[in-house]
Each structure stands twice: as structure tokens, then as C-alpha cells.
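Entry 14. Two folds queued back to back today. First construct below, sequence then C-alpha cells.
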Amino acid sequence: MMLATRVIRRPVVTEKAAFASGTFNRHTFEIDSDARKGDVKAAVEELYGVRVLSVAIQNRKGQQRRSRFGYWKTPAVKRAVVKIHPDDRIELF
């Protein structure tokens, strides 16, 4: 079992994630690459004090970018989409 503060790195703040959190009560977090679904569920329940219904994990590979100065690779990211009980809320902002 990992520490809750090590499992969840930061919330994902995009237009799509904000729409899902407001409409469907699904919150998206960037997580540690070694974290599993059970670790994410325990960490969200501990840090935010809410009931978690389900966790979906996304492994997003890094992409190659280019500009006139050359090529570079964006880092790979592991995300978790967490569905919260309808009676609970997470106020991030």
C-alpha cells in the first residue's frame, strides 16, 4: 500500500475533465506510475473524505514533438478517472 500523498500527484484541469466532474461526478487525477486501482481508491477516500464507486486507469504514452529547434518527447502520464458517490462532492476550486 502506497502513501495517499504519493499516489495522487495532481488533479487534471482540462475542459473535458471539468465537464465530467460537474456533470457526471467523475474526477480525473494524474497518479504515480506504480499505483493500482485499489491504491487510488484508498487515497481519494482518505484525502477527500468521499465514497468512491469506481476507478478507471489510463496509461497515456509520451508523444514526439518537433519545432524548428529539433525534436523532443513529452513524458508518459498515468491518469485515473474516479467516479464519486452522487451525494459526495470534491471542491477543487
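Second construct, same run, same settings:
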Amino acid sequence: MVVKLTYFAMPGLGEPIRLMLAVTKTEFEDIRVGKEEWQKLKPTLKLPYLPMVEMDGKTLFQSMAVCRHIARKAGLYGSSEDEALEIDVTVDTLEDMRKHTVSHYYQPDSEERDQGMKKSVDVTIPFFLKLFDKQLEENKGYLVAGKLSWADILFLSHCDYLSSLFHVDILADFPKLKEYQQKIADLPGIKEWLEKRPPTPEDCRIFFS
């Protein structure tokens, strides 16, 4: 049975799941909705959130929970409880980076938004990237335990997403992270998905305004 993923026509919190399905060679239907479609769909759902994933005979919500589910099944959640914990810590830190920055992006046009976006690019994102740069060096080219985990997939997704939102290569000053991101992007399944996925809208606020 083909997995169905419903999300907005943008990367956001849908893209980590798309990438996880791609890297695990799981066939899926990529259902992308607009603002009007979402307003009609929202009242019919168990939880008023997207992404929504239909797989294994269940309807699943919450992006990180779905990614963990896929990772466990695919062996991308570490090989011990300690490794799983390190993956969770890394994932939560990546989520901190996303939340502390997109909160400014999704504001209406204003001087406050401009200042928040500038701070995100100049201060907040580099702060987190320095942490990941060090972590990458300590873990032999991956973020946890010297091997591929779903934390690496999330790094690719979030960095790609933030670069598209802020219209800047956030990894430009971090050559090791940029090389690492490309390594993950070139993984079988992911590479093919990135080549065929639809482009990101110029302004992702259109889905929420």
C-alpha cells in the first residue's frame, strides 16, 4: 500500500518526512494542498495539523514523531539507547534552530520582521551551525556515532529549508558542513527526490496569511 503524505506545497515540516521516505526507498504519494484546501480539510482531521501521513494502516500526525517511526523501522535511530538519546538531542537542537528563526520569517512585513530575519541570518543560525560543525568533527563525518541516522536527514532538510526562506546559503561560511550536507543530499533515494521535487514558493507565508 502506497504511503500518502499530505502537506502544504512547500518544504517546511513535510520535507523531513519526504526525505525519510525517499532514503528508505518507500513509495509515497506527495499530496500538496493550498490554503483554501487546508481550511476545508482541517475540521475533518483528528488533529488540526499538517503534515498528515497515512501508512501502516494508520493516520499519523506530528512531523518529528513520524520521522522517528520511519527511522526505527529503517535502522536509522542508532544501535543502542545511548545513540538514540544522542540522536534525540541533536534533533531537538535542530528544531531549536528552526523554531528560533522561522518565527521571524512568518511575521507580516514590518521593520520588526526585517530585524528578526537579519538577526536570524547573522547571529542565531551561525550560533547553531558552530555547534553542529564541532559535532560533525567529533563524530567522523556524521552527527551521531560516526554513521548515518535520521538526525543527518533532518540537518539536510532544515538547512535547505532555512536557506530557501532567507534566500541565502546559510552554510556558505561552514565548508565542512556544506560538504557534509552534499554527502547526505547525494544518498540514493534522496538524490532522486531532490532532482524531481517541486520548487519552493517565493514566499511561503501564502499558506498561513
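Quick look at the second one. The two ends are 35 Å apart (CA to CA). The CA atoms of residues 41 and 48 lie 9 Å apart.
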